UniProtKB/TrEMBL annotation:
Belongs to the CN hydrolase family. Apolipoprotein N-acyltransferase subfamily. It is an enzyme of class 2 (transferase). Residues 208-466 form the CN hydrolase domain. Its main location: membrane. The lineage of its organism: Bacteria, Bacillati, Actinomycetota, Actinomycetes, Propionibacteriales. This is Apolipoprotein N-acyltransferase.
Length: 504
């Protein structure tokens, strides 16, 4: 069992806050990934020889600091929302602190602590109401040689490697005679990851050309009666500009991509909105993948939807967003909470999740069976939803987002980073399409090729290869998450039993 000197309680609290800030500093837009590794080492060291209660408290404080740094952008919905979310997410770090404090009592703690981080990320991404695991360790590796591992072991696997680097640093710091073993681990992870980045991608034989339309909106109109119409009017206007530009440059477009909420009123049931979409498709003379709010099957409900809209046949294949944001798109226990918390009325109609993988059938001339993988906004953070696009046959990936609410905050760069990770994981180019934020094609190396500027209308043309590979990460990543959870629970139980035997 490792040891550490006795610390004054105030110093312990300060170090917990510092560890959280260091761990969060590797997330976008800071991107200071070495600090995350240092933070993991410091956090683990702080938990040595702690009682369960104190370990939970220190973990909670670390999580509160980390989440305050990384996801306080949620407070644009209200300060109370930000405080509540950060306070809840910190609970997972409290549990992590408790578990790690027990795992450190076992001989094999350097191998057992890293899976505990992955297990926490997995659990926090599931519970409650679908979870919200946004600031994962694996995102900090996007601009490091470790990024080569994404395609092979997935995001969960890269989170594991970041945690391994942190515990390795602590392992060496506790006994400098171990530096050779520590150096071997670090060099192996970075060198192999770097070499994996050099593995050539298959050269596709087919491609499609997409016009990515960023409509832009007047943010001051949000919540007003004019907003819903102006969003779609802007999408139509920018589509006209995109088509004119393409024809001037002799660029043949296969389809136009609109972002999430490009129509804030159901374009199928509302005649005025439908007319705008039909006009855009008719002028473009190619289909439009429309990001829309549609009416749900039940009264006073809605769905966030991607619709394939053909200029001749009209609306076709659809995908309904599955991973909805609680208290953002829907209200848990609505009948009970809504009368008691009137502020929740701002959420509007209850959103209903879809139940099918995010793939839209998109027939084109020359590509009659084209399958487009669609990931809508926060769904990016959910491994299963992202992986199922390629498992269901997606040949290219589009990531449709609104982001209007979070413009100018850390959320924008963090979401772009997650898009980059998914491109490397899935082995697909990702078209990150936003309403008025940063839109860009992203290649399979995670490179942002031609980003737009926030709060501007813009168009980007992208020739996107059609790919059919299913990377190993899609199968290995989920197994690592589940395996880490099982291993952590078993090791924790063993540590508790051994501790009780020693106490006797």
């Amino acid at each position: 069992m490792p040891t550490r000197p006795t610390l004054h309680p105030v110093l312990s609290l300060a170090l917990a806050v510092a560890s959280g800030l260091l761990i969060g500093a590797g997330q976008a837009p800071m991107g200071l990934w070495p600090l995350t590794i240092l933070g993991v080492a410091g956090f683990t060291w702080l938990l040595i020889d702690r009682s369960p209660g104190r370990a939970f408290g220190l973990g909670y404080l670390t999580g509160a600091a980390m989440n305050t740094l990384t996801v306080s952008w949620i407070s644009v919905l209200g300060a109370a929302v930000g405080v509540a979310l950060i306070a809840f997410l910190a609970l997972w770090w409290g549990l992590l602190g408790l578990f790690i404090s027990q795992l450190l009592r076992l001989r094999w703690w350097p191998l057992l602590v890293p899976p505990a981080f992955v297990a926490m990320e997995y659990a926090s991404g599931k519970v409650p109401f679908g979870g919200f695991s946004w600031s994962r360790l694996g995102y900090t590796a996007v601009d490091t040689p470790l990024s080569g591992w994404y395609a092979w072991i997935g995001l969960a696997g890269v989170s594991l490697l970041v945690a391994v680097l942190g515990t390795t640093l602590l392992y060496v710091a506790l006994d400098r005679a171990r530096w050779r073993r520590g150096a071997a681990v670090v060099l192996t992870l970075f060198v192999v990851g770097g070499l994996l980045n050099l593995v050539p991608r298959a050269t596709p034989q087919e491609s499609v050309t997409v016009a990515m339309v960023q409509p832009n909106v007047n943010r001051n109109e949000h919540g007003t009666s004019s907003y819903a119409r102006s969003v779609t009017n802007n999408a139509l206007s920018e589509t006209i500009f995109a088509v004119a530009t393409a024809r001037t440059q002799a660029t043949d477009i296969d389809f136009v991509l609109w972002p999430e909420n490009a129509t804030d009123v159901d374009p199928i049931n509302d005649a005025e909105t439908r007319s705008l979409v039909e006009t855009a498709a008719s002028l473009a003379q190619v289909p439009i993948l429309v990001g829309a709010v549609t009416d749900g099957e039940q009264e006073d409900t809605r769905q966030t939807t991607s619709i394939w809209w053909d200029p001749v046949d009209g609306p076709g294949s659809t995908y309904h967003k599955r991973d909805l944001v609680p208290f953002g798109e829907w209200i848990p226990f609505r009948d009970f909470l809504l009368p008691r918390l009137p502020i929740l009325k701002q959420i509007g109609r209850q959103s209903i999740p879809g139940d099918a993988p995010g793939v839209v059938t998109a027939p084109l001339l020359g590509h009659p069976n084209l399958q487009i993988g669609t990931i809508i906004c926060f769904e990016l953070a959910y491994d299963d939803t992202s992986y199922e696009t390629v498992l269901a046959g997606a040949q290219l990936i589009v990531s449709q987002s609104n982001t209007n609410t979070y413009g100018g905050t850390f959320q924008v760069s963090q979401q772009l980073t997650i898009n980059r990770v998914r491109a490397m994981e899935l082995g697909r180019e990702v078209l990150a399409s936003t309403l008025n934020s940063v839109s860009s094609p992203i290649d399979t190396h995670g490179r942002v090729l031609d980003p737009t500027t926030e709060f501007t209308s813009a168009t980007r043309f992208a020739e996107v290869p059609l790919r059919y590979n299913v990377n190993l990460s899609v199968h290995v990543g989920p197994a690592i998450s589940v395996g880490a959870g099982v291993l952590t629970l078993v090791a924790f139980a063993c540590a508790v039993v051994m501790g009780r035997r020693r106490a006797k």
